[in-house]
Amino acid sequence: EFFYRMITKEIEKNDLLVNSFLNYIKVTTPIRKKGTVSTLIEEVLRKHQVRLEEKKIKIFRNFERDLPEAIIPDEQLRFILESVLQYAMAMMPLDGSLELSTKSVVLQKEMREDQAFFKKNGNFIEVLVAFTYSKEPEEQAASQKEIVPHLMLRLVHDILERNQGMIKFELNETKGKRFISLKSPVERRGVVQYD
User: Fold this and answer.
1) Coil, strand, or helix at residue 166?
2) 6-54, pLDDT tens digit by residue?
3) Across the strands, what pairs with 103?
C-alpha cells in the first residue's frame, strides 16, 4: 500500500512536469505582423483625444493600405509619434487642423552615405504630420503652460538616425502649416507575432 501511494505520487509529479513542459513549448499559430504604423498612430491619437477635443482640433487621416512594417521597434516608434504629436499640439492654435498620412516612398536624392545598404532598394515608410501653427507659438504655448522642449524632437531625430531613418521639417507660410516628415527604412524580414 505504501509502495502504491509512492509510485502514484511520483507518476503524478512526472505527469505534471511533462504537461508543464508541453504547455511551455506549445507554439501558437504565428500571425504576420502588419499595419503597425497606422495602429500606433491611432493609439497615440486616442491617448491624447481629450486634449485634441479641448483645442477643437480637426483631424484628417490618410493611411496607405498594406503599408510595410518599419524597421524601428514598436516602443521607439510609439515614442516618436507621441513626441511629434505633443509638439504639434503645443504649436497649434484653437480650431486648428492636424493631418496624418502614411505612404511608402523610394528615396534616392536624400540618401546619405551611411545608408548605402538602402541605396539598392531605397524603400522607406513616410509618416507625414501637417498642422496649422500659431503666428506666435512660443507666446501661445507659454500662456497655456504647454511648452514642449525641442529636446524631445532631438531625441526623435537621434532615434530615427540610429535606425537609419530621418526627420525633415518644412514651413508653408502661405497655407499657415508646418510639416514634419518621419522616414524609416522598410523591414525586409518577414515579421511575425504570436497571440
Assistant:
1) strand
2) 999 999 999 999 988 888 777 666 667 778 889 999 999 999 999 989 9
3) 126
φ and ψ at residue 142, rounded to 5 degrees: -70, -40
CA 182 – CA 170 distance, rounded (Å):
12
The position carrying cell 500606433 is 40
Residue 183: beta bridge partners? 126, 166
Helix 36-47 to helix 74-91 angle (10° resolution) is 50
What does DSSP assign to residue 110? T
Q: Which residues contact 45 (CB under 8 A, 6 or more apart)?
A: 52, 59, 85, 100
pTM for this predicted structure:
0.70
Q: What would the DSSP string read from start to end of 44-107?
A: HHHHTHHHHHHTT-EEEEEEPTTPPPBSS-HHHHHHHHHHHHHHHHHH--TT-EEEEEEEEEE-
